[in-house]
Structures are given as structure tokens and as C-alpha cells.
Amino acid sequence: MLTVSEIKFKQIARTIESRIRDGVYPPNTKLPPHRVLAEELQTTPVTVAKAYKLLSEQNQVESFVGRGTFVCGESQLSSVIQTSDDEDDYNFSILQPCLSHNVPELQSAIRSSASKITSHLTGYAENSGHERHRQTGIRWASQYGLEPGTVQNTLLTSGTQNALAVLVESLTKPGDTIAVETLTYPGILAIASLRRRHVVGVQMDENGMIPEHLQQTIEQHHPKLVIVVPSHQNPTGITMPAERRESIARVVRQHNIWFIEDDIYSFLNEDPMPAICNWLPERGFHVTSLSKAICPALRCGFIKAPSSQVATISAHIRTDIWLASPLNFIIAEELINSGQAFELAERQRLLAGERQKIARKYLPHSTIPRQGYHLWIPLPSHWQQERFAMEAQNHRILVSSGSYFDTQQSCNHIRLSLTAINSEQKFKQGMEKLNKLLHSDPATVFSYQTNPF
Ligand SMILES: Cc1ncc(COP(=O)(O)O)c(C=O)c1O
């Protein structure tokens, strides 16, 4: 049975929790000192301290000796992906290609595609997109390991995020469960949360999602859908080897569930890897886009869908956006048909490799060798991930706290994008600052605020 004092501090914790939820205490702000809140809520400082401790155990707040208690940051896409235009910021937060390297080709593709704009291509189109633009999607995805689709089963979307949202909406209902990698892309978690789908994390090892755990999760939680990012996984950077891909497909095939393969980073593989959907022609939806290889602003995404689902998914795309802008696909067509899209993708892959090498020099103890656009860095025990991301921001270094990716809230990591900073020199400066911050003591960092290193 609960004692009176236990009931009291749990009540106080609930009050604070609802204030956090209502925005009275916004993320990353300092909560009132024990004595002040105790006076306001007519209780004792000890009771408030116990309430803070309870909320800290639930990862809602975090306490620091001598500094007070802070509200943890919230898992919102706007916080995980910080799109700063400020020249003084070191942006390690957003996963995008080194854009300045692609701009000249993009400009020339826009110039040469201008003459291809016809009245036919500027009107509403039947079937959520033009056949010639679907052909470009087939070419793009099959270059990186997907068995080529057809113009009938290749659908156009406004980027991968749109594809994921449309698929979740059409394949599941509110209250259904979706199985994902324990650490996953926050865009998937945001779709599930806004659409009231439950998410269950499937354990991973160094080769990605573990098939035996997927099997157990399906038996225990009965998900309707599994979503996997098989190449250069966001956030861990893991690429699933071919055998693991086949084993995952085998587990999915044994059950009556849908499968989405978010293959947006497949162009970063040195050699093409077989898409998991190659083994799942009847249950697998392959999604990808040109955002990471060329630029996010193109918003050109592609779904390869099982034939039985094409009509339903097309109806959902039409209902949401009518059709993804053909004007953007005219540019994509130009880039893909001229072969430039593949050259740009390769250029970015090599550049990412260079950045990985540089990063390892500055962060020698914190990283395992990886390829690709990002690093998933375990923090030293003296740093907590939310606090680190906040302090880094105070020093104009934008990083993403691991909490945004974690379905189990058990990691203490940051994710670093290596390609959002265009200049190599600035990238190195940012790495140096980051390394210093990682090795500093959180208790002393606060005083650096007016003198950022
Ligand atoms: C795994 C993954 N899927 C999808 C997206 C969003 O892609 P798009 O710009 O094509 O919507 C991202 C962006 O970071 C991502 O990391």
C-alpha cells in the first residue's frame, strides 16, 4: 500500500508532468528550485525533490548537482533536424548531401529541362504521375539493387517521407502496431505517433534487425507492418549484409504482414546490395528518393508496390496530394536520363568517405569505422545525450540527441551528419570543437557560454 508521502510526491510529479505537457515548462528549461515549487504547491522541498527524482527516472527531466533540474528535450522532427542558415553554426544535425557540390549540375539540368515543359506535363495527370517519370524511378532504384519495377507498379511521391506516410496510412489503422528497428529514423516515429499507431522496436546487432527477434516480436505484438532501413541505417549507419536481408524477408513471408524497405541510402553502398523487397514481391514496398544523392528540394520519391496494392496506394496519393509535382520530375528525368544523377550520387559517396576519415581523426575513440553520411556516437558517461545536444547548441554546434531515434529510451548517443557542412575547413573546425566538448566536464561547460571555444 502507498504511504501518504508516496501519494503526495507522485501527485506533485503528475502536476509537473502536466505542466511540461502543456508547455508551462518547455523542453530544456530549468525547473523551479525545490523550495520555490514546494511553497507554490504547499508541500515540502523533500517531496518536490522526490518528484523530480521520479521524473528523472522516467527520462522527463534531468538533474545536475549545483545547477538544478531541466526538462528533457522533446522528440520532434523540428528539433532533431535543425536547418540553421546561420553561417556561425556548425551543422552536424541534418542528413543531406554536400549541396554546394551539386548546385552547378542542378542549375544546368533545370536549364536544359525547361524546353521539355509542355502543357501536357503542367496539367493534372491521371494515375498519380506520368509514365515517363515513373521510368526514371525504375532506372534510379534498379541501379542500386532493386529488381526493376514496371510503370504500373512504380508510383511517384513527394519524397520518401510522403511515401512512408501514405503507406502507413493505407496499410494500417489507428491502434495497429508497426515493428521497426529499435533505433530508427525519427520521421517514421513521427508518422506513427501523429497517426496513433503503436511502435515496437526489434533488436539489432552489428548486421541490423535480428530475424529471430523479428519473429518473436511478430508472435508477441502482432504488428501489421514492419519498416526497415537496410543500408547506412539512420541512425546507426549499419548496412545489412545480403544473407541478413534474405533472412528478414523469410520471416516476413511466413506471416500475413506488410513490409516497407526505406532504401534512401542505397546509393552509398560501394556495390549494389539486393533489396529485401526482391524476396517479397507480394508483401514488400520499396521506397526511395533523390533527396540524399542530389538534393532534398527536388522532393522526388518512388514507391515500388506489390501489384495487388497499386490501386489502393495510388488512391491514397491522389487523396493526399493529387500528384507529386511533374515539374520536379522533369528535372529528375533530365538528371537520370543523362546519367548525371548517378555521377552526383557517386561524388557524394566518395565525399562522405573522405568526411568519415576526417571524423575518425578528431573522434578516434568514439567511433567505429563506417561509410556514409553519418556517425552514431556513444557519449562518455559524464554526458547525458539531451544535455550534450543542448550544450553543443550553446557552442553553435548542432547535433541530434540519440533520444529522437530510440524506441526504448536506453541509449546515450548523438548522431552526427558529416555532409551538411559544405566546406571541409569548417567541417574540421566543427569537429575540433565537438571533440573538446565531448571531453569536457558538463559541470564546467556552463561557464564557457560567453566564451565559446
Ligand atoms: C531513413 C530516411 N528515410 C526518409 C528520409 C526523408 O527523405 P525525403 O527527403 O525523401 O522525404 C530520411 C531523411 O533523413 C531518412 O533518413
Automatic annotation (TrEMBL):
Secretion signal span: none
Domain HTH gntR-type residue range list: 6-74
UniProt cross-references to InterPro entries, sorted A to Z: Aminotransferase_I/II_large (IPR004839), HTH_trans_reg/aminotransferase (IPR051446), PyrdxlP-dep_Trfase (IPR015424), PyrdxlP-dep_Trfase_major (IPR015421), PyrdxlP-dep_Trfase_small (IPR015422), Tscrpt_reg_HTH_GntR (IPR000524), WH-like_DNA-bd_sf (IPR036388), WH_DNA-bd_sf (IPR036390)
CDD domains: AAT_like, WHTH_GntR
Keyword RNA-binding carried by entry: no
Xref: SMART domains: HTH_GNTR
UniProt-recorded Gene Ontology molecular function terms: DNA binding; DNA-binding transcription factor activity; pyridoxal phosphate binding
UniProtKB keywords: DNA-binding, Pyridoxal phosphate, Transcription, Transcription regulation
Family assignment from sequence similarity: In the C-terminal section; belongs to the class-I pyridoxal-phosphate-dependent aminotransferase family.
Protein name in UniProt: Putative HTH-type transcriptional regulator YdcR
